[in-house]
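User: I'm putting together notes for a lab meeting next week and I want to include a structural view of one of the chains we've been expressing. I don't have a solved structure, so I'd like a prediction I can at least talk through. The sequence is below, exactly as it appears in our construct file.
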Amino acid sequence: MEHLPKDPAILVSSINMLLRDDEFDTLETLCYNFDETPEHIKAVLHEEGYVYSEEQRQFRPIGYDAV
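Assistant: Thanks for the context. Below is the predicted structure for the 67-residue chain, given as structure tokens.
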């Protein structure tokens, strides 16, 4: 993959896959590899209803972990 997808659904899926498959250790290393900032990716996906879980190392729907 040469660049991160622009479509939010494909973007969240791609990022979660790359982190899950241990292509990258952290969201930060993934973002910097694709010349993005973690803050920008988090903001874009937050607008689409996702929040990053450091513990799970993945983007999850907002409210997914709510008790």
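A couple of points you could mention at the meeting. The CA atoms of residues 11 and 37 lie 14 Å apart. Strands lie at 50-53, 58-61.

User: Perfect, that's what I needed.
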